[in-house]
Specification:
- The chain is α+β, with helices and mostly antiparallel strands.
- The protein folds into two domains: 168 residues, Regulatory protein AraC (Jelly Rolls, Sandwich); 99 residues, Orthogonal Bundle (Arc Repressor Mutant, subunit A), CATH 1.10.10.
- Helix content is 50%, strand content 13%.
- A five-stranded antiparallel beta sheet has the order 1-8-3-6-9.
- α4 packs antiparallel against α5.
- The longest helix has 25 residues.
- The chain is globular.
Amino acid sequence: MEQHNTYENIHFSNMINVIEAESFPRTFPLHWHKYVEIAALAEDAAVNTPPSIRIGHALYQLDPGDILLIWPGEVHETVENRDGRLTGIQFPATMLSELPDFAPFFNIFRTFHHIRQAQTPGLAQQMLSHIRQMLSVQDGHGTFAGVETVICLYEMFMDFGLYIKNSLLSGKELHPPGSSSTIEKISAACSYIVDHCDQEITLESVAGLAGFSEWYFSRIFKQITNYNFVEYVTLQRIKRAQLMLSDSDTPITEISYQAGFKSISTFNRVFRQYRGCSPSEYRKYYLK
């Protein structure tokens, strides 16, 4: 139980919880929480058995140089960390979602999980360098260690945001002119969906708000978020239900309607499809 107390039951007195290799658990059961968690495996990590973490239905195996992003509300477990080489950080999502420069990217950030050294070496190396710096700062216990750690975190997500922006701008669908504004409009559409997902919401209405035709909006929305419109709306309804499952004793049937689902049977089926467990199981897995 000592690992449980030091690893997951955190209160963010320093805003960011930095997890060194000796503190990262070898295994940890299914759970979820409201903060962002990042697991990393250094490029030079010598492992006999690659570490693996399950998020929902997906099992992610990390190779040296890889990073795994676990977002608030995602049911996950550390399946394998036998060699004890994983490191990590945990921090409140509001550090990104409530900062004006990051807010437009936050819903796009959340569509990423596995940053692979083999696929995007530049991005992986940049992000790992910031994680190494955070570990070093925390080890040093300097006067402004907390501030330095926050700066490292923001620099890491600046690199991540620029990578996303530049990779999208290089695609055929988003050539200038208007490329940057297209990303901003899709980000604004994502925010609108998040705020109104409990209501009747249509592709036509959101495309109109973004100033695009339905056909163009559908193509660009999929390219930027990796979800089609219906999938994204459904996911936001699931996320809204997740908050209610953790913050209240509201009956699950009532939660399903408040989250925008028309029937409890649909809610139960879709919730299991997206989160790999029933709503009642999800409530049980919540780690306070």
